Amino acid sequence: MSQFDKMNRIEKRISRSLSLQIYYAWDMSQTHPRELLDHMKYLLDDKEINDNFFINGSPIDNDEAILNNNIVDYAYKLIEATINNSDEIDKFITKKLKNWDLKRIALIDKLILRLSLTEMFFFDEIPNKVSIVEGVEIAKIYGNTESSAFVNGVLDSLYNDLEDNKIKI
User: Does residue 169 lie within any of the structural domains?
Assistant: First the structure.
């Protein structure tokens, strides 16, 4: 049993949102993700900053979920695995793009796809359907009006290929 098995649904959602934000910052700055996470944790430990930070309101609405070490550690684990496997993951994404080049996809959509596929491919403890739903929900928050449908289409297609043993990781 890993330390992350004890995380509840809200903590995992917060961790995934944090992962996306840090991954985006890393993509823009190439600053080490651990440094970015430490800075983010410092900022989000302040309730006032936290309340004003998240788009559409903070997922940390009550004392039930705070930015604890498990949230930060899971975010780091997800980011690190995504960065280390992004070339391989991009090949799978590219195969599902019809008349599109990976470079033309909105950056936020590409990052959400990579994070979700990292969970699907490398985090056996997370059911694939959960990774899909979470990716779609995060796309609704951070993407444009078409992001969630796009993310759902790519993830669902790759999920079906996984289930049918059409792809090997």
Answer: no
